[in-house]
Design a protein that fits this description.
Blueprint: H1 2-7, H2 13-25, E1 29-30, E2 34-37, E3 43-54, E4 61-70, H3 72-118, H4 123-151, E5 158-160, H5 162-179, E6 182-187, E7 195-197, H6 199-215, E8 221-231, E9 237-245, H7 252-255, H8 273-283, E10 287-293, E11 297-305
Parallel strand pairs: 6-8
Antiparallel strand pairs: 1-3, 2-3, 3-4, 5-7, 8-9, 9-11, 10-11
Helix pairs in contact: 3-4, 5-6, 6-8
């Protein structure tokens, strides 16, 4: 039967070799890692062991017990371990780079500011200085986020009025939203309880989500920010903040890796904002989730435990 299946291509030839060797030698024989196929035609890595059986102590070998070990999980574990090791090395390198580059960036930014304020520059030159300083500031912010993600932060949550916090962030972002042609809508129930939050860190999370939403609508659109009473997966009460945009949604290849470091959909993105936001909410014993609808937009949901 094995020979027939091997001829039809439904079983690996190495399996036949292992069974035949066991029959001829009378000893247990193992194959190396090989590919076998399930009934639906899906291949999987496996290890095959052939064990000859006797009918009695002096009898000839007349049967072979074949055991098959599915190696899918162990192979996946090895691949995941290698991926995590590579990510750890990349994270260490990025953090080291971010640390070393901060001082030169700060010096360059200060020199550009002095050049702009101390000298009467032509309009074109002054604009170039302003743009260059803005790029320095952006690089400084990227390096800060890298360091924050690499070393973690000391979060001290306290009862926080989330409606007031989100309003502050929206007010800060309003000029940028207006420039992008994005209309914002805010809603929150009046009796919403306070949440346990470290305000500065959670402001950073909300700011990042609103900024991402605005950039997902380069031709304008609608931004909805709403708060409501919700629950964590454990069933504990939570304050939920939803940030919804009317962009194009997230590509499938990005959706599953959305909260991993250095994953981004933008050419000018650095892929740390969402990873850092997830890290902050994990430290708050909260959660960050995303629901994306291709062609219609994305909804990010922030969950924070209710203050008790």
């Amino acid at each position: 039967r094995l020979l027939s299946q091997a001829a039809q291509g439904s079983i690996a030839p190495e399996a036949v070799v292992a069974v035949r060797a066991a029959c001829e030698s009378g000893r247990i024989n193992e194959s190396g890692e090989l590919t076998l196929y399930r009934r639906d035609g899906e291949g999987f890595p496996a290890l095959l062991r052939a064990i000859p059986l006797r009918a009695g102590p002096a009898a000839d070998f007349h049967e072979v017990l074949v055991t098959i070990t599915d190696l899918t999980s162990s192979r996946d574990a090895r691949l995941e371990a290698r991926h995590l090791q590579r990510q750890a090395v990349l994270g260490w390198m990025a953090a080291s780079f971010a640390h070393e580059i901060r001082n030169p960036l700060n010096n360059l930014s200060l020199q550009l500011e002095e050049l702009r304020t101390l000298y009467a520059l032509p309009a074109d030159a002054a604009n170039l200085v302003v743009e260059s300083k803005a790029e320095c500031d952006r690089l400084t912010e990227i390096s800060r986020r890298m360091l924050d993600f690499a070393r973690g932060q000391d979060f001290r949550p306290a009862p926080t009025d989330m409606a007031a916090l989100v309003k502050r962030v929206l007010a800060r972002m309003q000029p940028a939203l207006d420039r992008n042609g994005v209309k914002s809508l805010f809603s929150s129930p009046e009796d919403l309880p306070q949440a346990m939050a470290a305000p500065l860190s959670i402001e950073q999370v909300i700011l990042n989500l609103i900024d991402n939403a605005a950039k997902a609508m380069p031709d304008g659109g609608h931004l909805g920010v709403s708060l409501q009473l919700s629950a964590l997966e454990s069933g504990a009460p939570a304050v939920e903040v939803r940030v919804a945009d009317t962009g194009q949604g997230l590509p499938p290849q990005v959706r599953d890796k959305l909260f991993q470091p250095y994953v981004t959909t933008r050419a000018d993105g650095h892929g740390l904002g969402l990873a850092l936001s997830r890290h902050i909410l994990d430290a708050h014993r909260g959660a960050l989730r995303a629901d994306s609808y291709p062609g219609s937009g994305t909804v990010f949901r922030v969950f924070l435990p209710v203050a008790t």
